[in-house]
Amino acid sequence: MRIFKNKFFRRILAVLLLLVFLILLDTWMGDLLSPVTYAFCFNHDVQQIEKTGKNADIVFVGASRVYRTFVPQILEEKLGVDCVVNAGSSAQPICGTYYQLKDLIERLHPRRVFLGVTWDQAITNADLQEKLIVLDRLSLRNRLLMAVNCFSIEEMRYLSGTYRFKDNFTLEKIKSNIDSKNNLISNGFNSFSKKDEYYADTGFVYSYATFDQGNIPLKKMGGFSAEKTKDSNMHYLDACIELCQQNNIEVSLVVGVTSMMRLYMIGNYQDAVDFYSSYAQNHSIPFYNLNYLVGREEFLPDSCMHDSNHVNGEGAHIVTEKLAEILNQSAEGKDISGFFYENLDELKKDVHRIVAVKADITADPDSENHLFITISSAQNDDVEPVYRVLLRRSGEDGFDVLRDWSPQAQLDLQLADTEGATLRIEAASADETYGHAFQEYDL
Questions:
Q1: From the candidate CATH numbers 3.40.50.880, 3.40.50.300, 3.40.50.10150, 3.40.50.1110, the one assigned to the domain spanning 16-348
Q2: In the CATH scheme, what is the code of domain 356-442?
Q3: Which residues make Cβ contacts (< 8 Å) with residue 145, sequence separation at least 6?
Q4: Which of 112, 157, 167, 379 could cross-link with 250 by S-S, CB 3.0 to 4.6 Å?
Q5: In what order do the strands lie in the sheet with 250-255?
């Protein structure tokens, strides 16, 4: 019997040792195959904070409008605190927010937490890549918990770094990954760039991308409905609030800034604001919708946008300073309602421009250089837009007017030559004091 037990024990031990070896091998291979990401820098920052033994004063958690909006250094300076962490990640799902928050509470013990929410976050299913991005930022224990609770059986194969990054299994890719990581380490994790976006400050990413006023592309958006919210998303949002309250952490909801174009194009956006406002009231926590900052048309023009949904570095600095001012005045017991528009209609009263324009251009298959054009634009309901069409031919500098200002949105144009040409669509109002929008299309 003792011999049998010893053999059985040795077999179990051999299997366990094999599993440990395979896990370590996969971890090592995954590290070789994985490229440098913002998670690589973020994990370094969190580890450095842990080494100091100090706690975080403030932690932001949420999706891309968190990591592109809130600048830790500005908040530290303006609020007089020592440690602010921006734990936003691209398209972060609420289940990921929970485990990211849980991980940081255990490691950095923050005094205050801001949960970033978006109009579509509660109604959207998390996809695999969004969850993997969060997983890369967690300590082992919470990584395992998130894998078990948030990943389907089919998705779990991507927990293997070797499988996940199998397309990088070349000597050239491996060498590039090693060189990139070693260069970052040797530079003290300083990734500053004068022209490309870069990881700038404890989770915050600085971007130089910009737009001319009125040039953000018009995009169709979905719409919000409280009936569309998913139970799993609300479960994790509730869990985030409960986790903070259990740890005596002050928690707030915050909405990062998106473009004016999106505010006009999202269906029932005010319903989403009302939904989160009511949710915050029911949980007795503050709610800051930074999309409704009074005067944003003046201090946040389209030149402060990285793309149609995020501010760039300049815009982030402006918004963060505004938030710091709001938080300081709130801490002094002052009324901060004057910083915010009451609703979307109030905001739109301060918008005196065509926000965005778009042209759907179709070539006539039966006639060369014959185009059908349908123009659409975003503006206040009481504004009647007019459109102008211009053409710049290949090799020329300026534009020629093809069709002057007109409210007609359906066009049928026969051109002499379109090869290498650029079509410019402009939208304006009969009131010349209104700003206009434009887009250019290479034909």
A1: 3.40.50.1110
A2: 2.60.40.10
A3: 99, 102
A4: 112
A5: 84-88, 58-62, 112-116, 250-255, 287-289
